[in-house]
Amino acid sequence: MKKAFITKLIAGQYVIKDVETKEIYDAKARGKLRALRLEQDSSFLKQNTKKTKKDIKVTQVSPKVGDYVYYEKIDDKYMIDSILPRENELIRPDVANIDQVLLVFSVIKPEFSFNLLDKFLLILEQNKLSVILVVSKIDLIDEKELNELKDKLKYYEKLYPIYYINSKQKIGFDVLTNIFKDKLTVLAGQTGVGKSTLMNALLPELNLKTQEISEALGRGKHTTRHSELYEFNDGYIADTPGFSKLELAFFYPEDIKEFYPDFMKLSDNCKFGNKCVHINEPSCGVKMALEKNEIPKERYDNYVAFYTEIKNQKDKY
Ligand SMILES: Nc1nc2c(ncn2[C@@H]2O[C@H](COP(=O)(O)OP(=O)(O)OP(=O)(O)O)[C@@H](O)[C@H]2O)c(=O)[nH]1
Ligand SMILES: [Zn+2]
């Protein structure tokens, strides 16, 4: 059977691209889709190469953009037969096999928030997504203010790549475009930071498309289940941004430290090793680093605040 990649889904109709011939077809999913759905998360295959097919649970699941599928031609129609195991997936936006998330924060309007940055990073890390930070609207503050922000972000630059842009004049775009090469990218960030403006600046054809859809539906875009991947620099960009609402309810307080790559490294120096949550324990590697100003106090304080918030929620039940 032949293999393809799903680039578009609108009202049950798929657009697939054959991975070898690059031919594009309209396709439907078979009624009884034989989907190989992994019980565990994406890292399952990588970490458990010795697992056999028996360990993989077969359940029904519908294909989404980003999925690799097997398909066949029956009469004149193209039918999706099965989905290959996903590396990862999101529900909002509904995309599978995401290579990276572009996390957009504006310098102002809305104001840059380190609390929100840490919260986004925590959630993206939990979802095992690799993150690229984009600081937008750099034209709206003066050089001195921008340099102050860059200084504060130096610490984060050790953990994630950071790009500074102005989507109106396409400043910073020459380097930014390289990061999309061969990757499936999803944009995330709070409302108003400039995700759509960035996407439209990269993909001028998107402007027209969303307008057409809005007009056809007579309302805002995405009123039906519609998702699409746009080709850009030999990769794809998902048309719908994700993570506009941030929920901490899905965490256990003692687990969140695992989603701080910087804290994880330091926890080798904790007396209680991986049992240490870096708050009240003695001889804690993270708190020692904090005292030496090797971690920004604000990042640590945000961590304690998230921990406390989640713990208080859980204690209620
Ligand atoms: N000066 C300046 N304004 C920008 C820039 N990027 C976006 N804007 C403006 O910021 C406002 C919000 O931009 P959007 O692209 O709609 O933001 P968004 O993140 O898509 O917002 P949601 O759709 O609500 O999630 C618009 O008025 C844009 O024109 C920029 O680089 N510089
Ligand atoms: Zn510790």
Automatic annotation (TrEMBL):
UniProtKB keywords: Cytoplasm, GTP-binding, Hydrolase, Metal-binding, Nucleotide-binding, Ribosome biogenesis, RNA-binding, rRNA-binding, Zinc
Gene Ontology process terms (BP): ribosomal small subunit biogenesis
Alphabetical list of CDD domains matching this protein: YjeQ_EngC (cd01854)
Matches recorded under InterPro entries: G_CP_dom, P-loop_NTPase, Ribosome_biogen_GTPase_RsgA, RsgA_GTPase_dom
Residues annotated as binding Zn(2+): C270, C276, H278, C284
A GO molecular-function descriptor: GTP binding
Main subcellular localisation: cytoplasm
Places the protein is found: Cytoplasm
Note on cofactor: Binds 1 zinc ion per subunit.
Alphabetical list of Pfam families matching this protein: RsgA_GTPase
NCBIfam families: ribosome small subunit-dependent GTPase A
Subunit details: Monomer. Associates with 30S ribosomal subunit, binds 16S rRNA.
Membership in a protein family: Belongs to the TRAFAC class YlqF/YawG GTPase family. RsgA subfamily.
Name of protein: Small ribosomal subunit biogenesis GTPase RsgA
Gene transcribed to yield this protein: rsgA
